[in-house]
Amino acid sequence: WITTTKPGDPMYIAGVKEFINFAVKNGGGNDRFPCPCFMCHNLLHKRVDEILNHLSKWAFDRTYTRWIFHGEAKEKTLFMDDVSEGYDSNEGDRLEDMIHVVEENFDGNPAMFETLLSDSEKPLYNGCTKYTRLSSVLKLYNLKVGGGWSDASFTLLLEAVKDMLPEDNVLPGCTYEA
Fold first, then answer.
1. pTM exceeds 0.70 for this model
2. Where in this chain does the record put each Transposase-associated domain (predicted)?
3. pLDDT digits (tens, 9 = 90+) for 70-117
């Protein structure tokens, strides 16, 4: 349902309910969970009502098919092979690794946290509802890592994509701004 349905579809709504029940059951009594909408990408912790609101406005992050931030085992099962056709299983692992690196660097650096928080809420360009500055950088960075691109080639890609987007876009222009 994550990759084949949209908000409002009965199958999507049933899947979201299944996900929320799973998260609460495996949440260890927590009242906040990483939000799996494509705007938050599990970077922001929200209450269940806020997550439901996000998932009704924005789609579930289509790359998040193993709910490792919500209690599912990290090991990939045979069942997940069937469910996640076309999904790069390493993409979620790389994102998880990046999140842990960022979390470690938050200690004593609230400015970095504020920047990431701001970037996770800032639309890529005026009127864009699919990507934020942070989600677009993470998506492109996953391509860089997966393809083994150099920083120079990644900068060329960023420059080209930035030029293709509307002028008010906030995509970084080089690797070091990303």
1. no
2. 1-72
3. 877 765 444 444 443 444 444 444 555 555 555 555 556 677 767 877
Residues 6+ apart with CB under 8 A from 154: 140, 141, 144, 175, 178
Q: Which residues contact 42 (CB under 8 A, 6 or more apart)?
A: 34, 35, 36, 61, 64, 69, 95, 99
92: tokens are 């979620």
Distance between alpha carbon 112 and the CA centroid of its chain, in Å?
18
Q: In 3-state terms, what secondary structure has residue 32? A: strand
Number of neighbouring beta carbons within 10 Å of residue 23: 20
Q: What residues pair up with 45 in beta bridges, in sequence order?
A: 34
Q: What is d(CA 122, CA 53) in angstroms, rounded to the nearest whole number?
A: 18
- Other beta carbons within 10 Å of 137: 19
CA dist., res. 157 & res. 10, Å (int): 39
How far is Cα 125 from Cα 128, in angstroms, rounded to an integer?
5
Whole-angstrom Cα distance, residue 96 to residue 106? 15
